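Lecture notes, unit on protein representations.

Consider one protein chain, 300 amino acids long.
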Amino acid sequence: MLQAIAVNPVLKEKLEQYRKRVESGIDQLLPAADTRPAKLHAAMRYSMEAGGKRIRPALLFAACDLFGSEADPTAAAVAIECLHTYTLIHDDLPSIDDSDLRRGRPSCHAQFDEATAVLAGDALLTYAFQLLARAYQKRPELATRLIGELADASGSERLIGGQQEDIDNEGKPLDADTLRYIHENKTAALLTAALKMGLFFSQPTDAQIELIQAAGYHLGLAFQIVDDILDATSTPDTMGKPVGNDAAAGKSTYVALHGIEGAHAEAKRHTEAAITALESLGGENTMLIELVQEMETRIH
């Protein structure tokens, strides 16, 4: 089982700064809860304000900090959190994972109703792109790159495609290639997008984009493998959501394919590959490397 670690206090402080930054952005940039129709906007805010690790915004901020930027990445961080939250709302629906708990409290459909949860997810998906277009309209090249990257990562051939393959392969014999396809799209695509979107603020070279894309790919797979381990070994109180669902649903996981020890080894291998890419990338990369290391040893 994964053990708790002593997070570097500098990293912990920086992550807290990132968390406050994105949550302030969420409060300022989302429609007010009483905006008509109030039930829909209340549901959107309910899920967006539920807390969580804010990993994708943190990665975006950290990638932006590698080489610095004159533009403010906060709206981009809120946008990617909107998109991520929409996927959580829809994942929890009775027709998919049928989960009544998310981030330690009732999931959106349990708090409101299923129809409202579907629409709240739809609205957050749409709002992610609306926000990027509005916030960076005076920087059209940056806006285009941000919108394009988030759209590519979250479309039918990446994130949504990975989700479809995940559903279609429940209860079927495990296949390493299919498992990799599911997780490099369902999970790694959006983590990679977070890193690339942050880097776009510094007008990177093609070589820099390739390196951060490689880092995101390996980080994403490591992150999903650790998630699989936690689902098999942790508790609902620690995770803030039900555990054991993967095994119960016959889902394809790294634990099912490789066992706990084999999954740990795979997580370590991908983490080291992500760190190697970030070291080659250079810039102010210490914090980002430490974040990648911490994500491998997280307990929730």
